[in-house]
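Dear V.,

Thank you for sending over the compound details. I've combined the ligand you provided, adenosine-5'-diphosphate, with the protein sequence from our construct and run the structure prediction for the complex. I'm sharing the raw inputs here so there's no ambiguity about protonation or stereochemistry in the SMILES, which I know was a concern on your side last time.
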Amino acid sequence: MKNRVIDLLPLKIDLETPVILKKTIIANKELGILKGIIKTIPNQNILINAICLQEAKDSSEIEAIITTHDELYQSAISDYETLSQTAKEIQNYREALDCGYNLLRKYGFISLNHVCLIQQTLEKNNAGIRKQCGTVLRNINTGEIVYTPPQSYDEIVNLMNNLEQYINDSSDDVDPLIRMAIIHYQFESIHPFYDGNGRTGRIINVLFLILNQLLDVPVIYPSRYMILHKGEYYNRINAVRLNNDWEGFIIFMLDAIAESARLAIDTIERILVVRRNIKEKIKNKFAFYSADLVDALLLYPYTKIAHFSQQLGISRQTAASYLRQLEDSGIVKSKQIWKTKFYINTELFNALVPASYEVPDTKTMIVTESPANIYSKSKN
Ligand SMILES: Nc1ncnc2c1ncn2[C@@H]1O[C@H](COP(=O)(O)OP(=O)(O)O)[C@@H](O)[C@H]1O
Ligand SMILES: [Mg+2]
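Below is the predicted structure of the protein with adenosine-5'-diphosphate bound, written out as structure tokens.
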């Protein structure tokens, strides 16, 4: 497939077409509602935790790392070393998102170095920006090479420096959501790493929203929309390259943001209902009620005695006794898996798992294929 030279940013075309502007208004409106709802919630960690886990699951599914919600929530409270490879990948994504969020909060910008740290956390190797040539993007279902990103290290660094500047300098006055879409296309086209470019690019999307104060915390998961429309997502990227169809790509990204914001709002509303119900039930029934206890139960849909005792700073015996009593009154349900007894907050679990979880499209799958020696050398 023909490759086009990657243009430096800012683009010299007017992207504020009527359709794009209309979609921008809708997406901004949804983000505004989301930002407002989050402000009303006392313990935001509950949301960040739940929604980051969802995003980790969904973003990894584009890379065909499929996991169940049960495994997702069990692994969130298990020792990393004991996890399956799939569960490790998901936890790595989540750690990478946390890493990016913490760097952004600390420094107030998104540097190239931060992007490298995010990808390093995700991939658990320090191969960094591609130095060796040979990386291509392949459709693994057809074997076809769909795109060959820049091969020279100098060219990649040059384009990444330009992108870093564009990310952090908003003087061109274009709506941040349009800029986010441009940044995503640019990042995926440069494809600076041997692997993990898709997921790193999607983390940058969320961080960019926070950088521009469209959100305060990473509680949106656009990857879900992207996996559900994966074929279209890939086609839209290609159409920019082949037909200069920026409008189609930007509209796709704006729809992804609006839809993800709506989903986040729904999830938060469901979590709030669960919170109210659980609080009422415990308050009416148990002398050990405290706000911290309710929060601890809401932070993880799956918990276990050791984890619960640590969260609340109580002994294992006390934690075990509380969980047993909560189980007797139907607030949690226990489940023995191997040697571990998990306690599931079923109501929360159901609130987090969308009722109709559509199966992702696995017919199309585009992956980065890099020289094998680099990959095996740098993986640990
Ligand atoms: N034609 C294309 N041009 C540039 N990037 C693409 C194209 N098609 C897909 N992509 C991006 O490449 C990603 C796959 O790259 P990869 O490095 O394997 O990322 P990850 O390992 O995180 O999935 C896709 O998720 C998508 O974001
Ligand atoms: Mg990959």
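A first observation: The chain is about 60% helix and 5% strand.

Warm regards,
I. M.
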